[in-house]
Recover the amino acids of this structure.
């Protein structure tokens, strides 16, 4: 029997992994989003309102939250994807803060006081979302479509010259990424059974990016390792009490100095193959 | 084949190309030559759908789409200046990308093998990252990749740029070989004398304006090449 402490860590890892996958998808087309927590918030609030106030089954509500987040992602993507690099990062950061402020002032979902009343999901239910999504993204990474996305990341003009619709690929990736963040939000809401706008602030978005950078951005296992490291490492360092967050920061720097490409990359996977 | 009428390209207040009219017939190699800043690259980028422009561009009698990804599907493949290699992908992946828009996916593998036979060095480097290839190898990869889209017109922008003379000569020999496959070629170059040896006709651009056109011998006879590259020479006034 798994302890509630351990199941809490595993659930948070699963949720953080799905959230990090959303950043992984956006990075696959060469974009950097610092606003994915906004899509997570959207998924969390939509799914919660559907289960609490309309009696919708929880998994259907999470799926609905994902669809709404995905559509919002496409809507935001149209203007935002005209920007690149640091400018897109700043624009998505602005969108994230705007969304947080929206939920902060929205009385219907409790505003700053937050929203509750959800039924708690099991740990198994969280990983029943996380594992198929991992398999789906791993399969997608072997497809022509993923190659096309990476071509856009490498050189958008060159990608257009081989016939790739870079705008559609970026928009599609942004939309699906937003939907994934929405799933993470729905699961977060139904695991913690309480949500508030501050749970989806800039810190959450940067955690998502950090999980991918730390774990590795070339393969979907990277976000999984990154999310696990972000959730589990601070716990493993509890024995040094007050110094643990400082030590965690030092550990992050050390990992990235040794493996700037992240913990997992294709070369390592090839090397580990028998 | 390719018909360009009154093409004009502006970068804000700067007019890079004005009133350019040119034609490439089936099976021809046509050169677009001129000095640095003459507007050659802007002209072919506009033709290929990478730059907004005015004027008309048609291929095979049909207006060419104004977006590069759709111009390729209509039969125009551009190998850009700088080659446009996807450096983080392998040679094989780059070639596979070249056939992305093809409908006969079954034929793609066979066509890839054909390009590997045409460029044996690419076969040897098949699983290497394209960014690690030499300049000449990258140029071969870029041309091989463009051919995989089965273009009716291949546009090559400065294919000899940055290459050693021996490699540049190989690239020009390759362009001449390609003529035999039936693809029409629009070749943008600064190395005018080398290009005119293989081109059927040439257009000379000077500060965005078409200055002359004709066969290589016609252009040489009219003494226009030096003018286009060195500026128009005017007779100095006699000393007082």
């Amino acid at each position: 029997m798994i302890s509630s402490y351990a199941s809490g860590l595993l659930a948070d890892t699963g949720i953080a992994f799905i959230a990090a996958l959303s950043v992984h998808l956006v990075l696959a087309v060469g974009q950097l989003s610092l606003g994915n927590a906004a899509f997570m918030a959207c998924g969390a609030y939509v799914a919660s309102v559907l289960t609490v106030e309309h009696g919708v089954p929880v998994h259907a509500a999470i799926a609905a939250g994902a669809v709404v987040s995905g559509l919002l992602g496409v809507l935001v993507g149209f203007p935002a994807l005209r920007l690149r690099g640091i400018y897109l990062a700043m624009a998505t950061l602005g969108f994230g803060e705007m969304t947080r402020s929206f939920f902060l002032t929205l009385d219907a979902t409790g505003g700053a006081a937050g929203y509750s009343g959800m039924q708690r999901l099991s740990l198994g239910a969280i990983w029943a979302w996380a594992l198929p999504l991992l398999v789906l993204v791993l399969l997608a990474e072997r497809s022509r479509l993923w190659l096309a996305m990476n071509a856009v990341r490498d050189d958008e003009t060159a990608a257009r010259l081989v016939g790739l619709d870079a705008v559609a690929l970026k928009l599609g990736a942004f939309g699906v990424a937003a939907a994934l963040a929405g799933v993470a939000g729905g699961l977060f809401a139904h695991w913690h059974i309480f949500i508030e706008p501050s749970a989806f602030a800039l810190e959450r978005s940067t955690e998502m990016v950090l999980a991918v950078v730390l774990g590795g951005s070339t393969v979907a296992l990277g976000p999984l390792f990154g999310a696990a490291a972000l959730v589990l490492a601070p716990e493993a360092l509890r024995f040094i009490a007050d110094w643990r967050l400082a030590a965690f920061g030092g550990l992050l720097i050390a990992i990235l100095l040794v493996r700037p490409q992240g913990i997992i990359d294709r070369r390592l996977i090839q090397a580990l193959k028998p | 084949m390719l018909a360009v009428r009154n093409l004009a390209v502006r970068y804000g207040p700067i007019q890079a190309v004005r009133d350019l009219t040119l034609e490439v017939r089936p099976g021809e190699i046509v050169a677009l030559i001129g000095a640095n800043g003459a507007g050659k690259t802007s002209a072919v980028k506009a033709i290929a759908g990478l730059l907004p422009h005015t004027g008309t561009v048609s291929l095979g009698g049909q207006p060419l789409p104004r977006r590069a990804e759709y111009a390729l599907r209509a039969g125009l493949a551009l190998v850009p200046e700088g080659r446009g290699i996807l450096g983080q992908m392998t040679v094989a992946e780059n070639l596979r990308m070249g056939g992305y828009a093809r409908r006969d996916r079954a034929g793609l593998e066979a066509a890839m093998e054909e390009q590997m036979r045409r460029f044996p060095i690419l076969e040897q480097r098949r699983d290497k990252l394209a960014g690690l290839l030499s300049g000449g190898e990258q140029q071969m990869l870029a041309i091989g990749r463009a051919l995989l889209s089965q273009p009716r017109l291949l546009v090559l922008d400065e294919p000899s740029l940055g290459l050693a003379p021996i490699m540049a000569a190989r690239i020009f020999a390759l362009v001449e070989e390609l003529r035999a496959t039936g693809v029409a070629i629009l070749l943008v170059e600064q190395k005018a004398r080398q290009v005119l040896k293989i081109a059927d006709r040439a257009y000379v651009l000077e500060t965005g304006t078409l200055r002359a056109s004709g066969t290589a011998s016609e252009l040489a006879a009219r003494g226009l090449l030096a003018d286009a590259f060195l500026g128009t020479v005017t007779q100095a006034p006699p000393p007082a």
Notes: The longest strand of chain B covers residues 14-24. The interface with chain A takes residues 48, 50, 67-69, 72-73, 77-80, 84-89, 93, 96-98, 100-101, 145-146, 149 of chain B (CB under 8 Å). The first helix of chain B runs from residue 40 to 48.
